[in-house]
Amino acid sequence: MLSPEREDYLRTRIAHRLGFRAAPVCMCEIDSREAGTMRKLTFAMNMSLDGYIAAPGDDLGWGVPSDELFQWWSDRVDATGLALYGRKLWETMSSHWPTAGKQPGATPAEIEFADRWRDMPKVVFSSTIDKVDWNTRLVTGDAVTEITRLKADDGGPMDISGATLAAAAMRAGLIDEYVLVTAPVLVGGGTPFFTALDSWVNLNVVERRTFPGGVVLTRYETRR
Questions:
Q1: Using CA atoms, how far apart are residues 40 and 151, in angstroms rounded to an integer?
Q2: For residues 132 and 138, is the Cβ–Cβ distance under 8 A?
Q3: pLDDT tens column, 99-117
Q4: In this model, does residue 201 exceed pLDDT 70?
Q5: CA distances from 24 to 21, 37, 177 (A)
Q6: 10-24, 130-144, 181-195 — which is least confidently predicted?
Q7: Which of 142, 158, 192, 202 is 20 to 30 A away from residue 8, measured at CA?
Q8: pLDDT at 36 (0 to 100)
């Protein structure tokens, strides 16, 4: 049996012969008090092929989901521990979904989504509204400070939605995962999915999936 020192020596020799340097191997143990203590924060939204989550005029007509994709979004809502919303998207969602399941002609999938959305814990970040409903809390202070605090809290995974809010979290390096649900359409402008950044963010692809209509889901995790 080789000693650890001999194994490191042979590993280095092999690596050099293959044309690259062997990375040092850390033999230290991870402190369990520090591992896995942060809640995952994911930015997931529909997106056009040219990178917009809304066309000019906040037009979302190009992003109507198939039944399969709608169910995927519904299941995601059901699995979300806490949803973070900017004001604009919150007003869009809250003006429709609280009563959508009770409307004439509502499908079982729409009823299920409406119930799940109402029950899902939510936080809305806004300094211009003074009241929120449906299992929702309003935050009027600094969004980055509050999101940082929430990530350190106990609880399930968090989703963030809304271009302005997500951009602030993105620039602060708080987003752990990006889910791009890309429709095969070019809208030519509007609200972009990504914001300008001060430095690169390296990502790993962890999932790819295709839905009816040519919609492609790609999930990336931030490389820390």
A1: 7
A2: yes
A3: 988 889 899 999 999 999 9
A4: yes
A5: 9, 26, 27
A6: 10-24
A7: 202
A8: 53
What residues have CB less than 8 Å from 138, skipping those under 6 apart?
Answer: 123, 124, 126, 129, 130, 131, 132
60/124 Cα distance (integer angstroms): 21
CA 110 and chain centroid, separation: 22
Q: What residues contact residue 144 under an 8 Å CB cut-off, 6+ apart?
A: 168, 169, 172, 174
> For residue 159, what are its two tokens?
């989703």
Distance separating alpha carbons of residues 90 and 136, to the nearest angstrom: 10
CA-to-CA distance for 195 and 164, rounded, in angstroms?
Answer: 9
Look at residues 188, 219, 203 and name the one whose alpha carbon lies nearest to residue 62.
188
Tokens of 104: 């004439």
Confirm if 220 and 178 have CB atoms less than 8 A apart.
yes
For the chain, the maximum distance between any two Cα atoms, rounded to a whole number of angstroms, is 74
What are the backbone dihedrals phi and psi of residue 27, each rounded to the nearest 5 degrees, phi first?
Answer: -100, 5
* 29, two tokens: 């143990």
Other Cβ atoms closer than 10 A to 94: 18
CA distances from 45 to 73, 158, 165 (A): 10, 14, 13
What would the two tokens of residue 81 be?
Answer: 């521990």
Distance in angstroms (rounded) separating the CA atoms of residues 197 and 167: 9
| Of 18, 79, 42, residue with least CA distance to 175 | 42
Range name among 13-17, 55-59, 112-116, 183-187 with the lowest pLDDT average: 13-17
